[in-house]
């Protein structure tokens, strides 16, 4: 029995090593957190509508809620609405679910809460999304022609590739726990995009910032109210302590 357990543990270790070598255990990069930066949120909303909303819905968010990040209703109508959508509608993708399933192997998930649902051992959901959108690479063996270092064999193509350009991951062979494995080391730029690497990272940061805001639009208000509540409790505690000391001072 002991030999069977040891063999099982060894096979699990080998599987983990293989996963790391192919990038499935790629470390998550820290996403910039700029929930009070309205310019970043507005740019993120623009990127979301132009690059994500074609396939992914945000069915629990209405366009007019974008007024909370500094946009006017007219700006929303002029820049973020397409087709027959109205400013009071929810953000629904125009793609046919049946066609999406045929093309990608499954219906693209709703993104309203993705920045919260993707949190894990590697960091927050924002960290996951920030890393995910920056680790696509060309892979002719995949149906879409794209793969992802963080999400191996992903069904989603790289929708922002024209901004980032084309890159290839570089691996080197290393010995891990007595076994040889291919480990990711760096990226090689194959074809330039319309943005520099720094500009693309900033754009993805804005997109992730917006997704994080969309997952909880009242976050800033919640934090602000929470600070005032804590201050009130501190003042109330001091006053209650002084009143208690004054009352019991005359009691023997």
* CATH homologous superfamily placement of the largest domain: Cytochrome c-like domain
**Terminal Cα span:** 73 Å
Structural class: alpha+beta
Task: Give me the CATH architecture of the largest domain, please.
Answer: Orthogonal Bundle
Main sheet specs: 2 strands, antiparallel
What low-confidence regions span 5 or more consecutive residues with pLDDT below 50? 1-23
Write down the Rg: 24 Å
Helix content: 40-55%
Q: How many distinct helices?
A: 9
**Spatial arrangement of strands, main beta sheet:** 1-2
Provide the fold topology.
Elements: H1 2-21, H2 38-52, E1 58-62, H3 73-79, E2 90-91, H4 97-104, H5 114-117, H6 125-132, E3 136-138, E4 146-148, H7 161-164, E5 165-176, E6 179-192, H8 197-215, H9 219-249
Antiparallel strand pairs: 1-2, 3-4, 5-6
Helix pairs in contact: 2-8, 6-8
